[in-house]
Model the fold of this input.
Amino acid sequence: MATSKANGPVPAAGKSGFRNQKQKQENRDESELLTVPDGWKEPAFSKEDNPRGLLEESSFATLFPKYREAYLKECWPLVQKALNEHHVNATLDLIEGSMTVCTTKKTFDPYIIIRARDLIKLLARSVSFEQAVRILQDDIACDIIKIGSLVRNKERFVKRRQRLIGPKGSTLKVRKVVLDTMKNIHPIYNIKTLMIKRELAKDSELRSQSWERFLPQFKHKNVNKRKEPKKKTVKKEYTPFPPPQPESQIDKELASGEYFLKASQKKRQKMEAIKAKQAEALTKRQEERNKAFIPPKEKPVLKPKEASTETKIDVAAIKEKVKKAKNKKLGALTAEEVKLKMEVDEKKKKKKK
Done:
């Protein structure tokens, strides 16, 4: 009985515990594989990785516009020096207006020719040498986006392209941002999402989770900004009848009788009409010249109106009043006031008696 129990089936609790331990170990192994340690960099491709070199030579060529010729002449020795470090030859053909890069027998990196091709493409597209030479590094890549055919209207194309130009003429480095900008989506929206993703990537717990709940959702609003025209055309009422046919030159001549005149008579009439117009022009010109000699109309001199008898001032009466005022002492009573005072004094005397 003891042996049968020992060799019997394992209990259910023991099985589940064993499975959980196994799953935890697998998850731990996967997390260790997915996570990249901080500061880790992929080792550079050296000559030891490919000691025998390349079997065949490969080359790329690209054309450049005429206005880039002067700049490329100046910086071409620097371009050759940078490519010779990677054992790549570079030639500048000013007659054809082209740049060519090709591998040599000493070239050991098979991907360096692709980077050299991108270098000459960037130089042909008005990128400075200091920025373009960085493409030869392993951790830097470029993407040339053709935006000329994305927008039909030239004014819209120029406005939207202006949003992409950053400080000191540098452009944004994300393809989606460029394409969305040409579709009238401002680059600030995409830049915001990139900044949020950068912050989320720093958190070890959120690396393996979905970031949709954290990213902003920008809805496109189609606002009608059509301006009303200054001059509104009023449609005429619809009539099924066509407009009357205008009179031809022959009809006008028939109506005036000129059609039946001879050529000499028509010529004479034309000359008379020309002379009449010239005479009218001469008279108008003479009238305009004579305007300078016509004296201006003078305003009539207004005579001063005589003072009416009612409003005349009596000077003699004023003089008499002034004399009386001079003779009169300050504070003296008038004749009526003196009489009243004398009457009051007499009444007081009678009362006392």
